[in-house]
């Protein structure tokens, strides 16, 4: 079965900084355009991705159990966790803010945990299953990663609004710090994963193509 040549067959390497396809025939150490170090593959990609992902899972527990803010209204104050904050905003009619916090704080991290775990497990097993879809899944994880800090921004905006209108006072609590760590480590995990590993199991693919041809 005739297939198009791959970049490694042509001794090409994509620069991770500027995106230039660099010729590796003479084994250059850096990109000729921007000077960034060249790597045919991300070093220790799976190990670093697993480490960052597990660290984010550890921080996700206190991020949801500890209060993220303290709300004081007319002299009475109370601490709120992420779920408590969502319910409180919903009960007060701010369903849009409640929905944003729920998506950014609970749904998005959950999706990233499941998606990255799926990518890691299938790559380690050398699976040829749905590789194009898994590549799209990785790009989706990268896309939603840019919106992961939306919850922290919403809490900051609500606190500023409450103080500006002199309705009360809102102060951050330790839970917001752990949630920030969750965001950072999930982003590092996604950045450490090398999506080219999805297409790496070339030998198994050639065997399957040979069997199919017969």
UniProtKB/TrEMBL annotation:
Q: Do you know which InterPro entries this protein is assigned to?
A: PqiA-like (IPR007498), PqiA-PqiB_transport (IPR051800)
Kinase keyword on record: no
What broad class describes the main subcellular location of this protein?
A: membrane
Q: What GO cellular-component annotations does this UniProt entry give?
A: plasma membrane
What does the UniProt keyword field contain? Cell inner membrane, Cell membrane, Membrane, Transmembrane, Transmembrane helix
Cell location: Cell inner membrane
Q: Per its record, how is this protein called by name?
A: Paraquat-inducible membrane protein A
What PANTHER family does its record include?
INTERMEMBRANE TRANSPORT PROTEIN PQIA, INTERMEMBRANE TRANSPORT PROTEIN PQIB-RELATED
Q: Which residues form the signal peptide?
A: none
Asked whether the keyword DNA repair is assigned, the reply is no
Which regions span the lipid bilayer? 50-69, 97-122, 143-162, 174-193
């Amino acid at each position: 079965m005739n297939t198009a040549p791959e970049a490694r067959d042509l001794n090409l390497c994509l620069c991770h900084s500027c995106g230039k396809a660099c010729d590796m025939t003479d084994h250059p150490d850096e990109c000729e355009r921007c000077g960034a170090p060249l790597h045919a593959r991300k070093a220790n990609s799976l190990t670093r991705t697993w480490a960052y992902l597990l660290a984010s899972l550890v921080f996700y527990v206190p991020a949801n159990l500890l209060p993220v803010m303290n709300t004081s209204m007319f002299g009475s104050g109370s601490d709120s966790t992420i779920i408590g904050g969502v319910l409180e905003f919903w009960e007060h009619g701010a369903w849009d803010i409640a929905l944003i916090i729920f998506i950014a704080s609970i749904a998005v991290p959950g999706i990233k945990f499941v998606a990255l775990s799926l990518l890691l497990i299938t790559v380690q097993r050398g699976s040829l299953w749905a590789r194009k879809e898994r590549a799209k899944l990785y790009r989706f994880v990268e896309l939603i990663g840019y919106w992961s800090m939306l919850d922290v921004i919403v809490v900051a905006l609500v606190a500023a609004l409450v103080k500006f209108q002199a309705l009360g006072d809102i102060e951050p609590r330790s839970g917001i710090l752990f949630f920030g760590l969750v965001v950072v480590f999930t982003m590092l995990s996604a950045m450490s994963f090398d999506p080219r590993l999805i297409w790496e199991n070339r030998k198994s693919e050639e065997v399957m193509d040979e069997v199919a041809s017969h």
